Amino acid sequence: MSATKGQPLVVVIVLNWNGHDDTVACVESLRGLRYRNARVLIVDNGSTDDSVAVFGRRFPEIRCLQTGSNLGFAEGNNVGIRAALADGADYVFLLNNDATIDPDALDRLVEAAESRPDVGIVGPKIYYAAEPRRIWFAGGTISALGRLGHEGWNRVDEGQWDAPRETGYVTGCAFLAKRRVLEKVGLFAPEYFLLFEEADLCVRARREGFRCWVEPRATVSHKVSASFGGSSPQYYYYFVRNYLLFYRRHVIPIRGWAARLALSWYLTRLFAFFLLTPHRGGWGKLAGAFEGIGDYLRGRFFQRRVHRRLGEDSS
Predict the structure, then answer these.
(1) Does residue 149 contact residue 143 with C-beta atoms inside 8 Å?
(2) CB atoms within 10 A of CB 56
(3) Is the pLDDT of residue 66 over 90?
(4) Would you call 207 exposed, middle or buried from its count of C-beta atoms within 10 A (0-12, 13-18, 19+)?
(5) In whole angstroms, what is the distance from residue 110 CA to residue 7 CA?
(6) CA dist., res. 69 & res. 223, Å (int)
(7) DSSP-derived secondary structure for 141-188
(8) Rounded to whole angstroms, how far apart are CA atoms 150 and 96?
(9) 135-173 per-position pLDDT tens digit
(10) Half-sphere exposure of 225 (CA within 13 A, CB side)
(11) Which is nearest to 67 in space by CA: 52, 89, 88?
């Protein structure tokens, strides 16, 4: 992945937190990229295992930044993005450490971004790693009332999502952003910590006239929720708290009282589902969701139980 004259410089950021086995597999897949002007940057997000030592042995040629503590997906990636921009990156490409990438994917993503000056953020088609033809992401939807969704989710790929097109948002699992977007719009909002931060950035980019794009010829495989359980109380804590924050910022200012009524109805349905499914851990999920609502109302964000209020200095 040495520099090639004429190709935009892409810095690929892989965020690691106590997951060196996944990260090693991810970086090995990046070594197979055909795109030549790419540099890999590992950001270790306060791991307590021997991740940093493992990377030093396996990838001595690759820079590894250490955050010193777990800053979450949003600010952990921001550390890498700032370093990439300082190094002159034309593009920043975020790739989850539990994902692997097809050798042609980065060429396809950059080609899509370069083809239209207003395309600012591009994502690939993403498959479940355990089922290579089952889709996890083929585009992102944001409803009028702020509900996020994945096009093609859990469907077998039969070519029905093969057309490159504009999309509502791009998942942070595999997220290519132009330098110009990040300089104009800013980075991820760190108060989310994790979940909704990429949708928030995409909405802000679209308001500035940039388009979000999906390029299905580029493909990635994803293990999905390797770093924390996607149906755990912790997941629902961040999901509900951050959904409320996203809703307040991007839906209520447009939809007003209709948005507030719709939100009440949605939360009622969600809690009813938890109550009716104790055999699926519904009580624990309900506790996580209520904790998330409580912290949202108190203005407590960032990491769960290591809170700061918005605008409060972290030092």
Answers:
(1) yes
(2) 12
(3) yes
(4) exposed
(5) 9
(6) 24
(7) EE-TT--EEETTTT-B-SSTT-S-EE-SB--TTEEEEEHHHHHHH-S-
(8) 17
(9) 999 999 998 778 899 999 999 999 999 999 999 999 999
(10) 9
(11) 52
* Torsions phi, psi for 14 (to 5 deg): -115, 115
d(CA 149, CA 209): 22
**Does residue 161 contact residue 216 with C-beta atoms inside 8 Å?**
yes
Would you list the DSSP string of 98-157?
TEEE-TTHHHHHHHHHHH-TTEEEEEEEEEETTEEEEEEES-EEE-TT--EEETTTT-B-
Task: Give per-residue pLDDT as tens, 2-53.
Answer: 446 689 999 999 999 999 999 999 999 999 999 999 999 999 999 999 999 9
Residues forming beta bridges with residue 57, ordered by sequence position: none
* Domains assigned to the chain: 10-222 (3.90.550.10), 233-309 (no CATH)
Distance CA 108, CA 197 (A): 24
Structure tokens at 129: 């790693």
Residue type, 269: R
- Residue 161 is predicted with a pLDDT of 95
Q: Which residue is listed with tokens 């990636």? A: 77
> 248: how many CB neighbours lie within 10 A of its CB?
14
Q: What is the DSSP letter of 279?
A: G
- Cβ neighbours, 10 Å, residue 282: 16
> Whole-angstrom Cα distance, residue 228 to residue 233?
10
